[in-house]
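Researcher: I'd like a candidate sequence for this fold, 80 residues long. If you have to choose between options at a position, lean toward the conservative one.
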């Protein structure tokens, strides 16, 4: 028996954006003094974190998520 699946990319993108916006809203309600930034790509997020660390004389960053986020982030961080 064959099963076919179709992915509605527009629906998936819209749901992802809704989730992102909800997390942003909750975070800003819990920590109103914080600044929240969105970076659509891992490399951009790592560069932003590095700039923030340079500005504040260093910092530690915790990367959490699925293997689709953490694995590539580790690869980028381990590049010479």
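Model: Candidate sequence:
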């Amino acid at each position: 028996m064959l099963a076919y699946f179709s992915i509605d990319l527009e629906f998936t993108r819209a749901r992802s954006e809704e989730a992102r916006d909800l997390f942003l809203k909750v975070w800003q309600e819990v920590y109103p003094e914080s600044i929240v930034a969105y970076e659509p790509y891992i490399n951009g997020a790592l560069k932003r974190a590095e700039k923030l660390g340079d500005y504040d004389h260093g910092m530690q960053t915790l990367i959490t998520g699925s293997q689709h986020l953490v694995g590539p982030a580790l690869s980028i961080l381990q590049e010479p």
